């Protein structure tokens, strides 16, 4: 609300719902005391502290948008990201408004035996007329886009996970009865993801139970609602008779991605939707690293790069080109792009490359220490990694605000007398809609030199004070053109350029005669 002295005006979002009553501190407000227009419920005068009760009527069966609360195969289900919660009740539907949720669900016990919401169940019981209830409490503050509710005739498989602290977490995957035998791989994938997040990032799960629900009619693929992930069935269900290796790997990766959001998205969330890559780019990077550790790191990297080169580069080159952190939007649901997700992951990976694995982990630890329970920005994320490592990140942040794919031109010269290899690299970024002028970016260029037998040569960079020579060097390209001198090169080498696709760029390499 807007505070003005003793109180102020409160504006709440609400769409496609019927407002039945509004009570302020127990007193029902009349039509003259509230205003409802243009999807906004306005209370002109509210005190600084108060209890607000709003009763609404909605029609989940007629909710064909599948946003908010809707029916899927006879089961009630929610999808609230990005702005679906306003279709359930009036609320400040923005990600920087974080609240502690307690949810009570009442339903016919025979038709809807399973009643789920975020957090831990704190009460359940029977009621009159064949109804029952369940009350769930999530002790962690979250934005309303992470709210979830599921009610239906579902069955589940159960397992347990022992956290590194010794806590036991109940794991349940809910599906329709006919699909119960197709959940084992998803459960194993979840346990692997939980263990990996503890070992690699030091992040432990924070509730007594973690639940996944698989429904056929789900328009977002999968959703990281706090403690209650909702998936389209194709990202959960698999059996050896019908699923391919790609199906199994895809399920493992998506299960991990949504679980990893528990910290990168749920515990630390976005201040506004312009910061979407804060949670999605970072979590895509995390799920890529998980998949690399679970399968083959080179193969996983090739797959990730193929997405960038074959699809995201096209987005950068088209009329809808936009930065990783866009500056405006008309429809928020069009924000979920390859640039925000996959190029955003490459931006995070470049920080990992520049800082090293240990430096990146230090930065992540500081990020969580500073911002746990808060809604923050991409700048806050970069600042935490920079501050933890004494890294000047000003130029690097252009990756978040500048659209387009940088193009590198590369020229190498070998001086046999000096035993030096001079590598000249220049960068340009073509104009994109709304951004005609581009600034030089900080681009980590991973290079190696091979001898005549294809073996890596040790690299000694002029002016570098590293004690030991490396066979792969990260060259930080900052200017429009720079020359790097590699010393003690005993023969004319073959250049190995942009190893591991160390930056999402195109390369024009001068070919020898």
Helix and strand composition category: alpha+beta
CATH architecture of the largest domain: 2-Layer Sandwich
- Mean pLDDT rating: 96
Euclidean distance between termini CA atoms:
69 Å
Number of helices: 7
Major β-sheet annotation: 5 strands, mixed
The fraction of residues in strands falls at: 25-35%
Spatial extent as radius of gyration: 26 Å
| CATH class value of the largest domain | Alpha Beta
Measured as a percent range, the helix fraction is: 10-25%
Number of domains: 3
The count of DSSP E runs of length 2 or more, i.e. the number of strands, is: 29
CATH topology of the largest domain: Zincin-like
Global outline: elongated
Strand order of the largest sheet: 15-16-17-19-18
Poorly predicted runs are none
Question: How would you describe what is shown here?
Answer:
24% of the residues lie in helices and 33% in strands. The protein is α+β, with helices and mostly antiparallel strands and 513 residues long. It has 3 domains: 58-262, Zincin-like (2-Layer Sandwich), CATH 3.30.2010.30; 271-400, Orthogonal Bundle (Neutral Protease, domain 2), CATH 1.10.390.10; 407-509, Immunoglobulin-like. It has a 5-stranded mixed sheet with strand order 15-16-17-19-18, covered by helices on one side. It has a 5-stranded mixed sheet with strand order 25-27-23-22-29, with no helix packed on it. The radius of gyration is 26 Å and the shape is elongated.
